[in-house]
Amino acid sequence: MKIKTFVRDCIPGPMYEKLRRLKSLLLLFVLFMKQDRRFSKNAALPGNMGQKQLETQLIFFSHQIEKGLSHSNFRPGFGSRPIYALGVCLKKWNNHGYSKDIFGFKVATSALKAYIDKHDEIGCVLPDFFNSAFDREIMKDIDASDPSFSGTSVISGSENSSSMKTYSQILNSRVSIREFEDCPVSESTIESAISLAMRAPTVCNRQPQAVRVIFNKLIIKQALTIQGGWRGYEFPPALLLVTAHNSSFNNAIERNEPYVDGGIFSMALLGALESYDLGACPLNTMFDIHQDGFTRRLLNISEEEEFIMYIAVGKKKVGVSHPRSFRKAAETVTTVIR
Ligand SMILES: Cc1cc2nc3c(=O)[nH]c(=O)nc-3n(C[C@H](O)[C@H](O)[C@H](O)COP(=O)(O)O)c2cc1C
């Protein structure tokens, strides 16, 4: 007789269930610890600054510059923090002698060039902190950078077409839009987009996703103020919150699946919103303990659900700028195993 069958036959039912639970919790603990080790050894945490982590920081701070450049109410001299941080990171990059032909380096120098060009274009002098952030070598790198790696693009009429789009047209035309027309969004269109996004696959068809559709202006304002990643923009006419239910999952090895299924669903929803010609911007729910608690209380969400992301939604406004968010080439992220 197998040990498992023997134990099950000899131990009373409730006790056996307790043992099974204990085993699951132990496995969960071990897997969390291993995940913790992988993340803490490799993420761009203080003390982990290898080339990849430095590149992560370059991309992160460059995106803040791109966002600032795309604002309709452009604020000359913005961005002392990301510019100072880019100065530090680029100096480290050059001191280590890392290649200047790496994506993050190209994006950073290109974003800084776009910053200079924008100030030139509107006849504003660069702020003092800009000039003091970079040494001569970095200034040369910025000067020699490829402008297509960063900067902003404009929402045009063709991107705004309302005709039915193919999947590749949706992927190519969708961008994060943070400035919308000042008009309400139709509830039925959002419902149709959610219906379409329900076609997203989920593990064993578990469908753990849930969506809150928020139109209440005060709640949108409070939620995005807690979220913190929407500074400097008018609040959107509608805000969606995608969550995933932990109760849809069985055991320790499924612990990350709410995020995988929730992420796939969210991408389907972004595509569906684009297919209905609505502007949208995914917004992180990377909350600390306080943000998590405030948001759960604000929206009456229990611990049973995991936050996946917010999506700001509104009618597209032709002519507004958006960060270019240039993409890596597919071959740089692909490994073929034959
Ligand atoms: C999960 C997730 C969270 C995001 N969080 C924010 C955010 O908090 N604030 C923001 O302005 N943009 C946010 N974005 C938008 C990204 O900056 C944007 O998707 C990225 O730069 C690519 O640009 P694109 O969406 O225009 O293609 C988020 C995107 C994703 C997928």
Account of the 3D structure:
This protein folds into 3 domains: 3-42; 51-150; 167-322, NADH Oxidase (3-Layer(aba) Sandwich), CATH 3.40.109. It has a 4-stranded antiparallel beta sheet with strand order 2-3-5-4, with helices on both faces. The chain has a two-stranded antiparallel ribbon with strand order 1-6. It starts with a helix and ends in a 15-residue tail after the last strand. The chain is of the alpha+beta class and 338 residues long. The chain is built from 12 helices and 6 strands. It is 49% helix and 11% strand. Flavin mononucleotide binds at residues 63, 175-176, 178, 229, 281-284, 309, 322-323, 325. This is Nitroreductase. Residues 173-214 form the Nitroreductase domain. GO terms for molecular function: oxidoreductase activity.
User: What is the H level of CATH, i.e. the homologous superfamily of the largest domain?
Assistant: NADH Oxidase
- Give start-end ranges of low-pLDDT stretches: none
Classify the secondary structure makeup into a structural class. alpha+beta
- Distance from N terminus to C terminus (CA atoms, Å) equals 43 Å
What's the level 1 CATH class of the largest domain?
Alpha Beta
Quote the average pLDDT: 95
Radius of gyration: 24 Å
GO molecular function: oxidoreductase activity
InterPro entries: Nitroreductase, Nitroreductase-like, Nitroreductase/BluB
Protein name: Nitroreductase
Domain Nitroreductase: 173-214
